[in-house]
Design goal:
By secondary structure, the chain is mainly α. The protein has one helix and no strands.
């Protein structure tokens, strides 16, 4: 019984780690995208004036 419970919990932990990793990756992509857009906007503002 104890072994089965331990075995049952492990996939959940793995899934949680994968989820956390995916969320971190998404956040990095979003922040990179926002920074990129901000840089473009600033560049356009500077060239217009």
């Amino acid at each position: 019984m104890v072994n089965r419970a331990k075995y049952k919990k492990q996939p959940d932990i793995k899934m949680t780690i994968v989820l956390v990793f995916c969320i971190k990756e998404q956040k990095q992509k979003v922040t990179r995208y926002i920074r990129f857009n901000t840089a473009i906007a600033e560049y356009q503002l500077n060239t217009n004036h």
